[in-house]
Amino acid sequence: MNEIFNPEYETMRREELRELQFKRLQMTLRWAYENVPFHRERWLSMKLKPADIRSLDDLVKLPFTTKADFREAYPYGLFALPLEKVIRIHSSSGSVSNPTVVGYSRGDLSTWSELCARVAVAGGAHSHDVAQIAFDYGLLTGGFGMQAGLERVGATVIPASTGNTQRQLRIMRDFKTTVLVSTPWYAKHLVEVAPEWGYDFEDLQLRVGLFGAEPWTNRLRDELEERTGFTAYDNYGLSEVIGPGVSYECWNKDGLHVNEDHFLVEVVDPLSGESVPDGKEGELVFTSLTKEALPVIRYRTGDLASVSYRPCACGRVFARHSKVYARSDDMLIVRGINVFPSQVKAVLQEVEKAEPHYQIVLYRERAIDQMEIQIEVSAAFLPDAVKKLQGFQRHVEERLRQELGIRPRVRLVEPKTIPDYPEGAGRVIDNRDLGPGSTE
Ligand SMILES: [Zn+2]
To answer: Rounded to the nearest whole angstrom, what is the distance from the C-alpha of residue 315 to the centroid of ligand 1?
Structure first.
């Protein structure tokens, strides 16, 4: 049984927790009302003021915040603090459409590191550990959040970042890594290729995997644990809410505990927006209770899960949500990075200066996500113009890489090989499964 990082909060009584949540909610709503015109104007148009929210149940009176609101408010429109008080910015990828920009005050970074420390300790990490973080260290939140959390626990952190599998394995062996932080599918990739580079997981010191940023099944967990001897834990988060550290698994591995002293969780019907009963699947919605720079009110995540308030064997009071396997919108998760088909379309329109005929095909190669964009080549390119075609292909690949933050393969295909999609339909063929057991 692993320890609990902050038992005072993680195991407090539910009545006390609800009191604390309501007090913090009132503060957050006043803070947002006074400092974010976006929220103030919308609430006023509904004749609502923070004082009208008299209990936690009244929260449903307030409007949702969506990813579209973030894009419209680009870059700083949802911030409640002037930049002078904001000491960190993170952002999603993208330049054709506005990316999602988030900011943190000094206090927010402190909160975030505590929440990620809870994730790490719930997975059994402690100060003696050597933690290798194989998340992208760019504008995305994953690497920075987990690094701060593990440092707070006192672990020795190696910011290995992504890619270069051979080097990752070498670091793992030579630096005596005991905790791996990555996406679950990257972990599977490491396990699969290790023997080819002469590494044996049995000889490595790894004992804990803290995996997040993409969907995976319990069967994939079983497979990883059997093949490596480490124990694997799921964690969940998204940058709009704070980044990693929103929820996490304990040793019981029966749902992810939401850090409820810092976030209110709701589950709503994705179509009607109405609350669904406990235990029924719907869209996860979060309201921050302590954030200063960027309070979020009823943020619709697009992630589908159910929530349970049943007590957990680990002793934590926090509600648990089921593992997230699906989304309510067309967002794709490719190697842990969020991609919208609309980004691909926008790049192709920009390059081709006309509506291209294309489709997106997703598959895995040795557990690594691959994204292929198939484009029908118009009659403007004649067969003898091979050089021109290759140049075009490379140009599109590079533009897509800049836009998406991952490099897709571009394949040019002959006219009339891609089916005609109805207007507005997702041109996506996803051949990836969720892992062993996903069809059960
Ligand atoms: Zn638990």
So the answer is: 6
